[in-house]
Amino acid sequence: MGAGAGPGGCFGRSPAQAPESPRPMPPAMLTQEDLRISTLGPRRRLSPLRHLHEGPRSFVPDDRRVMYHIEYCHDEVINPLGFEKAGPREQLYFDPAECRAAIVTCGGLCPGLNNVIRNLYYKLHSDYGVPSILGIRDGYLGLNPELGEPPIELTDQMVTQIHHQGGTILGTSRGPQDPAVMVDYLQELGVNLFFPIGGDGTQKGAHLIAQEVERRGAKIAVVGVPKTIDNDIKFCYRSFGFVSAASEAEVVIDRAHVEAKSTPRGVGLVKLMGREAGFIAAAATIASGEVNFALIPEVPFTLEELLPKLERRLEARGHAVIVVAEGAGQDLLEHEQGLDKSGNRRLGDIGHFLKHAITDHFKELGKPASVKYLDPSYHIRSVTANAADSLLCEMFARCAVHAAMAGKTDLFIGLWNNRPVHVPLKVSVGQVKRMEPQRDLWSAVLATTGQEKW
């Protein structure tokens, strides 16, 4: 086994070798109290949603839970641990007519950002009657009045068609700002409903804002909408944009397969997003069915194992397709250490490294390989949301507004066991959801690629 390889070699255990994994356990010492949602105070106003549509309206009581585990054995004691279910409350904390909301998008682009903005606007304005919804410009930078552009007042005309556009009409940026400065500005603007849309770094910022709001005794509800193209936010089974990105990545992989087949000893090499988690690489690999080797951060690999396998594949079939997540194989690279503006570790370029390593290896063997390298990262993240992600965006936005109007705060809307839930920011931020190589998704990747047999 090469240096750095994990159990089962550089590509992990096969489904036949791996024992059946128990279902994932909750983080150590996680209790129901840890999952309690903070509120700004008692709710005394009846929701206007009672009269919005004809017929009875279903409201969600605060004691309704979505269980952490939905599977159990017949002789097992059932653990009642669960997340508070998201949805409309019959009573509100805020008077909608006296509210002002603000929406901000932060971090990298992701399919569906404009969908979330649009749905937040319509739920706030059309359903609840909130008179003013601000769009904060260029991420958290826009909450520092000395550095950012002033906010814009969102209107029907402005948002009506934005779900057909990629990116975000509000702009985005990376990096934190001083929570005290941001809360000062939110108070100056008269905002009492705040919706940050972004990944873990954004939600860390939201948590700091919520803490500063609480310290001041201010009445601002902070409700996040999780956004990560890598699908790596803890306690959110699927984040919006992931399926759109995986679908677009599948198309790129198929093109790489065409390139590889069209030349002697052709190798199609595709680098996909996935800093700490290989969900996009895994999903696109399975969807395509044309990948021969998938490399992800959760399963270490070495060139001493990969290159001989690739040799055998080329000798037998004449071509190969490799998919690598951007965070895979970082231990093989020499690159500048440190953190980027979002606080993430800097990554070396594993795609270029593998291209040169493969090219040099086969050249030394006297059997040159034709390596076609594709890096579609910026293309994938800037596409519009597909139907599945559009539905998820609507649900996240709708539930975020319901939570904020009820005075709930310091949370984001998660998806757990296919139900929307309230996730306290304090239990999620700073953690990363990763693939578990012993579970079904990686087993499906190995079965699809057949990479172990080489």
TrEMBL record:
Any GO BP annotation: fructose 6-phosphate metabolic process
Key words of the record: ATP-binding, Glycolysis, Kinase, Magnesium, Metal-binding, Nucleotide-binding, Transferase
Domain named Phosphofructokinase: residues: 100-403
GO terms of molecular function: 6-phosphofructokinase activity; ATP binding; diphosphate-fructose-6-phosphate 1-phosphotransferase activity; metal ion binding
Domain of life the protein comes from: Bacteria
Function of the protein: Catalyzes the phosphorylation of D-fructose 6-phosphate, the first committing step of glycolysis. Uses inorganic phosphate (PPi) as phosphoryl donor instead of ATP like common ATP-dependent phosphofructokinases (ATP-PFKs), which renders the reaction reversible, and can thus function both in glycolysis and gluconeogenesis. Consistently, PPi-PFK can replace the enzymes of both the forward (ATP-PFK) and reverse (fructose-bisphosphatase (FBPase)) reactions.
Similarity comment: Belongs to the phosphofructokinase type A (PFKA) family.
Protein name: 6-phosphofructokinase
